[in-house]
Amino acid sequence: MNQRNQGPYRRHHGTVAAGCALFVAVMVGAAYAAVPLYNWFCRTTGFGGTPQIASVAPAHVLDRKVKVRFDANVAGGLPWRFEPEQNSVDVKIGEVVTVNYRVVNESARETWGIASYNVTPPTVGAYFSKINCFCFTEQRLAPGETRDMTVVFFVDPALAQDSEQDSLATITLSYTMYPVHRPKTPQVQNGSAGTSGRS
Length: 199
Known about the structure:
alpha+beta, five-stranded mixed sheet, 1 helix, 10 strands
């Protein structure tokens, strides 16, 4: 290839390389953004049984009742016992309900955990609203410590307007505790570092 043709040839390859680099950067950015965007979508729509977050109670309570079951699970690697204080409760739609879960650290060391949650059937996620919850908040338990954690929720009266929910009789609120791994704190020996202790 002669010298005169090398300039456009190099510019073409430079453009292709820049385009590839831009594509890779966009794809990496999209990968990082996918998780928070998906979480936002689930919280907004109730997709996949994700409950909603509310700050106030509904304006009215209906006579219709549903049974809400409570489920608790612990992922591997977390030495905790985790259970609801009651297995289920019958609630009126629109009624604000408070229930407790109890967790016990059964190990002889300090441990950390964090809970995720969902409701079933998944289509109810858009109507199940939490006012207060311990989910997605790190819990640190001392050896043998027991802690009661509160959930305040209601079933939105809008559910009664959804014909697909006419036969709904039971909702299951399920939590899973996952371990949070913390880096070990280096042990600090008595005395100042680098001194022999001799005068």
